[in-house]
Write a structure and sequence with these properties.
Layout (H helix, E strand, L loop, with lengths): L1 H12 L7 E10 L2 E6 L4 E6 L4 E5 L5 E3 L14 E6 L3 H4 L1 E8 L6 E9 L4 E9 L11 E6 L5 E5 L18 E5 L21 E4 L3 E7 L5 E6 L5 E6 L35 E3 L5 E6 L12 E5 L5 E6 L4 E7 L7 E6 L5 E5 L4 E8 L2 H6 L1
Antiparallel strand pairs: 1-24, 2-3, 3-4, 4-5, 6-7, 7-8, 8-9, 10-11, 11-12, 12-13, 14-15, 15-16, 16-17, 18-19, 19-20, 20-21, 22-23, 23-24
Length: about 375
């Protein structure tokens, strides 16, 4: 294990030099790190798919496993998915964790709320569990994001074997759901009265949504895995249908068609799509000051292409795209923005790492 870590570290540190940025490993030996959040300018918490919360420091080697985390169903794609802070975290210390809630034969995506204390989580409460339950350990979604009004978004997948559920607005699988932080459904959701859909459903027709972000202007953006090809970037609007599996740009893994349709009446088309698949894993809309030319860019981490796509968008389309960090040679599970605008990458492996990305200054450039 130690030898493997050292080899991985050498590969990162000896990667080809890029004119724009420099990278360094700041944490390693993490079992599939899938999400992270800074609780102050120096301290951050990493949630691993293996079901642990690790608290780490930028300035020291200090690290501790937080206690009190809820139990999760760890199998295939199941485990801890996303960890975010309450908008009023500095005053209330509230955090939210999306995870696979067991048991195996009746599992589902769930949200737990807790208070972050000195050594771990307290007052841990399950505030929401998607319905219905399923018996597959795949396609959970599990991404979280707050809107400006304080409501919380959660993505859910189609469970892999239940694709038709994504087109059923009364079913919570294959959806973007919107809820209050007490777990109740807002009165202004698209199907709040329950007559034409489930009161929690905000949008539907999603397969395996792995990226969710809210822009500075309040727009909701999501990317999701297609089957074989047809990964999508979607601009989410309340009540809209995004097609899966009635429409798709991908095919089944067997080579057979999922559907002959790539568009249909009543279906909102993707802003862009990728064929062959890139396996998009996380979405960040960069707002930091360190990389000025990247401000407003969409950073999409990928598992298959092992890079981060930097996308430039106008109102309705992608106008430019470039590949970043491919020299690391790693499946990148997450791309996060730090307090000062530095970028942090999570590698999808065991052991996995947290890699910091900063602009290459004149000083570092002269040394290289």
């Amino acid at each position: 294990m130690t030898r493997f870590i050292l080899i991985a570290l050498v590969l990162v540190l000896s990667a080809p030099i890029n004119a724009e940025y420099t990278t360094r490993v700041i944490a390693e030996d993490l079992a599939f790190p899938w999400s992270m959040a800074f609780i102050d300018n120096d301290t951050f918490i990493v949630a691993t798919r293996s079901g642990t919360l690790e608290q780490l420091s930028l300035s020291s080697s200090e690290r501790k496993t937080l206690q009190g985390g809820p139990e999760t169903y760890v199998e295939s794609q199941g485990g801890y998915f996303d960890f975010i802070l309450d908008p009023d975290f500095l005053s209330n210390r509230l955090v939210y964790l999306a995870l696979a809630d067991g048991p195996a034969e009746t599992n589902a995506t769930a949200i737990y709320r807790a208070v972050l204390g000195e050594d771990g989580l307290t007052e841990v409460t399950k505030i929401f569990r998607a319905s219905p339950s399923k018996d597959t350990p795949a396609h959970y979604g599990g991404k979280l994001a707050f809107l400006a009004d304080g409501t919380l978004l959660l993505t859910t997948g189609d469970g892999f074997e239940y694709r038709e559920a994504a087109q059923d607005p009364f079913n919570q699988m294959g959806k973007v759901l919107r809820l209050k932080t007490d777990g109740s459904a807002p009165a202004n959701n698209p199907f709040a009265d329950g007559k034409n859909g489930d009161p929690y459903v905000y949008s539907y027709g999603h397969r395996s949504p792995q990226g969710l972000a809210v822009s500075a202007t309040g727009q909701i953006w999501l990317h999701e895995h297609g089957p074989q090809g047809g990964d999508e970037l979607n601009h989410i609007r309340g009540g809209n249908n995004y097609g899966w599996p009635a429409t798709s740009f991908g095919i089944n893994y067997s080579g057979a068609r999922v559907t002959p349709l790539t568009s249909a009446e009543g279906v909102t088309p993707p802003v862009t799509y990728w064929t062959p698949s890139i396996a998009p894993s996380h979405l960040l809309i960069y707002q930091g000051a360190l990389f000025e030319t990247w401000q407003g860019s969409f950073l999409v981490s990928t598992l298959v292409d092992q890079d981060v796509k930097r996308l430039t968008l106008d109102e309705s389309s992608v106008t430019d795209s470039e590949s970043l960090f491919s020299e690391l040679g790693a499946r990148i599970r997450g791309v996060h923005e730090g307090p000062d605008g530095a970028i942090y990458l999570l590698t999808d492996s065991d052991p996995g790492s947290v890699i910091e990305v900063r602009p290459k200054t004149e000083e570092t450039a002269s040394k290289s």
